[in-house]
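Format notes (please read before filing issues)

Several people have asked whether sequences and structure tokens are stored in separate files. They are not. Every record keeps both together, in the order shown below: the sequence lines, then the token lines. Line labels are part of the format and must not be stripped during preprocessing.
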Amino acid sequence: MTPAATATIDPKEAAHFGTMAADWWNPHGSSAMLHKLNPVRLRYIRTAIDRHWPGQEQAFRPLDGKRALDVGCGAGLLAEPLARLGASVTGLDAAPENIAAARAHAQGQALTIDYRATPVEEMADTGFDLVTSMEVIEHVADPAAFVAALAAKLAPDGLMILSTPNRTPLSRLAMITIGESVGGIPKGTHDWSKFLTPEELTELLEQAGMEVTDSHGLAFDPRTGFTLSTNMALDYFLTARRKA
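Then the structure lines:
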């Protein structure tokens, strides 16, 4: 099925990110910002994993025996680290070009990851222990349906982690005015009006039967790069689980 026929995928967004596929793993290319984001993403995810499944804080592979789903995986910048943490990983992306690049890179790293150019709402598999979707919901056509589809894939005791830009003057300045002119973000990547506030995303999660258990901001310091922060004005993470 083509992206245009699905409920949440925006075909224009899929095409935009598909054009970046060949350059996705170049840390100095069109995805340079994602490479800079990835270390702090992984720190946040590892902390959330250790909190949700205690007792493995010193383990190299805390996700051994667990299934992870990364939605909007691009060419695998997050899916590959999740696999190295021990998870059996499925990665979904709207752009077939990204999936092809992801498969080729994983093969070169001797990693087995199930990559699919499949919308999350059309995937039959459920019961994932970990569901992640980083910097994706601001690009979908129907955020509420997208969150509901993510929640439907989660195991009863599973963990969901999302990140997205906040809709604030700071995010418009940093990600569009500066980021898409001189900051290395490809022009047309963001539509500020589609950014969700933490309150809006929390409401969508609650409507999908989830409860938020943690929230953190993502800040940028020219001296140190991206860092976790209590300030969520630029970008933020939400961790959620099913309501008890």
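For reference, the curators noted about this record: The first helix runs from residue 11 to 18. Strands lie at 67-71, 88-92, 114-116, 128-134, 154-165, 210-221, 225-229, 235-242.
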